[in-house]
Amino acid sequence: MSDPAREARLRARVVELARAQDPYAHIFAGKEFRRDYVAARTVAWSALFKDIRDTTSRVLEIGSKEGRSALFWLEFFASAHLTCVDLFNDEDAGRFDRNLAAYGPRLRKIVGTSIKALGSLREENAVFDFIYVDGSHQRDDVMIDCLGAWRLLRPGGVMLMDDYTWKPENPDSERVAPAVDIFLAWHDDAEVILRSHQVAVRKRPA
Ligand SMILES: C[S@@+](CC[C@H](N)C(=O)[O-])C[C@H]1O[C@@H](n2cnc3c(N)ncnc32)[C@H](O)[C@@H]1O
Questions:
Q1: What is the pTM of this model?
Q2: Structural domain tally of the chain?
Q3: Which CDD domains match (predicted)?
Q4: What backbone torsions phi and psi does residue 161 show, to the nearest 5 degrees?
């Protein structure tokens, strides 16, 4: 039987161990965070995205919270411009602003729902080399985010989706995986380059 308190303790321990070994820990030093969804990923991300590091100049992130993953993209893709979309409607928003204050010219913040932001970006004919989908975890929202983001990704670009294995006990409508699975079934132009807790796909040239 699942024991939520024990699971939370284990998760906290994993994050603590990951932080102790994180070669990118210096990026986050002195910043304000309440949660860490990133420390356990930086090693895998830097290996997986090594080849696109120098050619990625336009990055979109759906779901930025306090800015931890945003900071990573800005440091890892050192010459990239980052567009962050989030509701930014609670105290995370202040932390995001303070954590990212030094990156002003390389950062665009879009406040609001991803469905609205993706529509506006499409109207602007925006194009991205790399997109991180980590906003709402409700199936229908994830579906909208994946489809909307895919249209903004250039051929050869990479899209990364978080939390594929999140909460398997939830009903389908409250999980990420069913949306990602449908997205992959619809899109044979998506070459899967990672399928674990996160799924990464490269857009095949037309
Ligand atoms: C898991 S957090 C993102 C964590 C962040 N990527 C990181 O690693 O530091 C999810 C974020 O998605 C945002 N979010 C949820 N639903 C959204 C929606 N419909 N449109 C835009 N953002 C949304 C939340 O406000 C929250 O900040």
A1: 0.94
A2: 1
A3: AdoMet_MTases
A4: -120, 130
